Amino acid sequence: MTNKFKYLVGVSLRKKIKTKWFAIINILLVVIIVGLANIDTIIESFGGDFSTPAEIIVKDETGEVFDLFVSNFEQAQTYLRDPESLKIIESNKEKDKLVEEIDNNKTIIVYIKQDSDNYISAEIISNSYVDNVLYQIISSAINTSKYTIAMEKSNIDIAELAHINAPVTINRTILDESKSEQEETMNFFMGIVFPIFILPFFMLIVFLVQMIGGEINEEKTTRSMEIIISNVSPKTHFMSKIVASNLFVFIQASILLVAGFLGLTVRKYTAASTFSLGADFDIKQIWEMLVSSGMASRLIYIIPITILMMILSFLAYSLLAGILASMTTSIEDFQQVQTPIILICVAGYYLSMLAPTFEGSIFIKIISYIPFMSALISPPLLLLGQIGILDVTISIVILISAIYIMLKYGIRIYKVGILNYSTTRLWSKMFKAARG
C-alpha cells in the first residue's frame, strides 16, 4: 500500500511539474517579479525617468524670496527620493530666455514676482510633468516664504518672527508603560506591510483549492477514477492528492521566494540601488524601526509560528477542497462549491490588513480563532501585540482539531463521493456517509 501511495503521489506531482506550461509560466513569473522589483530601472532604460530633476532654477524678481525659498525647501526635501542630486540655482536671466533654454525634463523653473494683493505670486515651469511630491514641496516652500515676508513687512520683531516660524515641539506621552511611541508608528506601518508578505500565501491557497478540485473532477469526468479506485483504496487516493498538491504548492512557494530574492539582488546592483517603499525609505530603515519599536525580537518566534500556521492551513484547505470536489460531478459544479472557500480566504486577507484598527476588539480576537482564517489574521495580531501566545496556541489547536475532523469524516464522504455521478440526494448521501 505504501508503494501505491508513493506511486500516486509521484504521478500526481509529475503531472503538475513535468509540463511545458509549468516551465513557461514559472519562467514568466520570475521575469515578472524581477521586473516589478526593478520597474523604475526598466522604465528609465526605455526613456522614462524616475530620478529627481537635476536643478531648480529660481528667477526671483522680488530680490528677497530666494534665500527663504532655499531654506524652506531644504527643510522639506527629506521626502524626496534622491535629494542630494537636486540643485537650486538663482538666475538673473529673463523669464522668456530661461523658458527657451529648457531642453530636457531635468529642469524646473520657479518664477517669482511681486504681487500687490498677496505680496508675491509664482509660476512653476517645466518641460513635462513634475513629480507630485516634488511639486508639493516647491509649493510649500513658496507659501512659507510668502508667510515669512508678510510677517517681516508687518513690522514684527525678527526674534519674534523666528519663534513664529519655528516648528512646534510635540512630546508624545503614552500612559501604558508597555507601549512606546515607536511601536505606535510601527503598528500602522506593519498593518500595511504584513499583508503584502501574506499576499503570496493567499494566492497559493486559491491556487491549491482550484488545483485539487480540477484534478479530482478531471479523473471523474474521464472515468479514470473507476480504474484507480479498483487498484487502491479511496483513502490512499485521497491522501495522495493532498500530499502531492501540498508538495507542489511548497515547490511553487520556493520558486516565488527565489524570484523575489533574485529581484532584490538585481535591484541592489542596478542604478536603483535602494529598495524603496516610498520616499527615502529602504529595508535598513524598516529594520531600524522594527528594532526601536521592539518588534524585531518578536519576529524570532512569530516567523516560525506563521510558517507552522501556513502549513496547517494549506493542509486544511486542501482537505476541504478534496472533500467538496468528490461531491461534485463536473468542474463547473466545483467552481460554484469553491466560492464560499475563496470568500472566507478573501475575508481573512482583508481583515489582516485592517488589524491595527481593531485594537482591543473582541470581534477580531474571536475571528483569529476561526480555522481557514487564523493563519491570515493571528500572525499580524501577534506582531502588533493585540493577542498573545496563548491566543495563537488556541488558534493552532482549533486548526489542528478541524484538520482531524476533516480527516476522520471527510474520508468517509470521499469514499461515497468519488464514484457518485448523480446529483440526486447527494447531500443526504454525504451526511449519511459522514455518520458512518
Question: What can you tell me about this protein's structure?
Answer:
With 436 residues, this protein is of the alpha/beta class. The chain is built from 18 helices and four strands. The protein has a four-stranded mixed beta sheet, with helices on both faces. Strand 3 and strand 4 (119-126) form a beta hairpin. Residues 272-281 have low confidence and may be disordered.
Task: Tell me the number of helical segments per DSSP (H or I, 4 or more residues long).
Answer: 18
Structural class: alpha/beta
Major β-sheet annotation = 4 strands, mixed
Outline, from the CA principal axes? Answer: elongated
The residue-averaged pLDDT reads: 78
Q: Radius of gyration, rounded?
A: 30 Å
Strand content: 5-15%
- As laid out across the biggest beta sheet, the strand order is 2-1-3-4
Order of helices and strands: HHHEHEHEEHHHHHHHHHHHHH
What is the straight-line distance between the termini?
A: 24 Å
Q: Which percent bin holds the helix content?
A: 55-70%
Secondary structure: elements and pairs:
Elements: H1 2-17, H2 20-37, H3 39-45, E1 55-60, H4 66-76, E2 87-90, H5 95-101, E3 107-115, E4 119-126, H6 132-153, H7 158-165, H8 181-221, H9 224-229, H10 234-268, H11 283-293, H12 295-327, H13 331-337, H14 339-353, H15 362-367, H16 374-383, H17 389-417, H18 426-435
Parallel strand pairs: 1-2, 1-3
Antiparallel strand pairs: 3-4
Helix pairs in contact: 1-10, 2-10, 4-6, 8-10, 8-11, 8-12, 8-14, 10-12, 12-16, 12-17, 14-16, 16-17, 17-18
